[in-house]
Amino acid sequence: MAGERAVTELPGRDRSPRQQGVDCTTEIFPVHHNSLRGTGMSNINPHIGLSSRSNGFTLVEILVVIAVMGILGTIAIPVFTQWSRSIDSSRGARGAYDMLREARSKAVTTKSQHMVAFDQPNRRYRMLKGTRAYNTPSSEMNTVVQDWVTTGNEVAMTGGATATSTDTVNVRFNADGTANLETPAGTAVVAPATVFIGMQGGSGRTNAVVVSTSGRISLQ
Questions:
Q1: DSSP structure string for the chain
Q2: Does domain 61-219 have CATH number 3.55.40.10?
Q3: Higher-scoring residue by pLDDT: 83, 142
């Protein structure tokens, strides 16, 4: 027709799939499982990410966890208790060691006897000051320099005097820095003294503070 353009379809060209009403995702790119064999992708689960098991634990799993925790607790608690007692014993011995060193230093600088009194039944000790450079009677060692310090641990002493667990035993330091152990009767004995600090009942670690007659103090 005049004035009209004839629209013809070129031979050999088809309409686009969308124009034909075809689903591109299923027709143009079909996925065939057979074509994926040998590529390692043939076992892909199309429902991946979806779990058929509901969240939670079974009764058997809970009982197993409880049993394991009980076993671990049985092993760990005694070990922790022993470790804690060892720490307490070390701390108590360190405190006695520090006070003995301070008493010796004060005796030398002030030219007056100082002593550390160990109250074994009550597990405590304190520092006292005398009025003389040497041989101060116990009745005159009444100036408290440091009051009672409780260790919480067993305190026992050995040395040149015999002492029982009910005695209060003193370690004296003279003005020249030498030391002696005072017996429960108040008699000064020139002999090394060893202070043992450990746990009640003998369990746990026992630490020793050794005072020699020269006044040397060591922690063992």
A1: -TT-----PPTT-PPPTTTTT--HHHHTS---GGGGTTTT-TT--TTTT--SSPSS--HHHHHHHHHHHHHHHHHHHHHHHHHHHHHHHHHHHHHHHHHHHHHHHHHHHHTS-EEEEEETTTTEEEEEE-SSSS---GGG--EEEEEEEE-SSEEEEESSS---TT-EEEEEE-TTS-EEEE-TTS-EE-S-EEEEEE-GGG-S--EEEEE-TT--EEE-
A2: yes
A3: 142
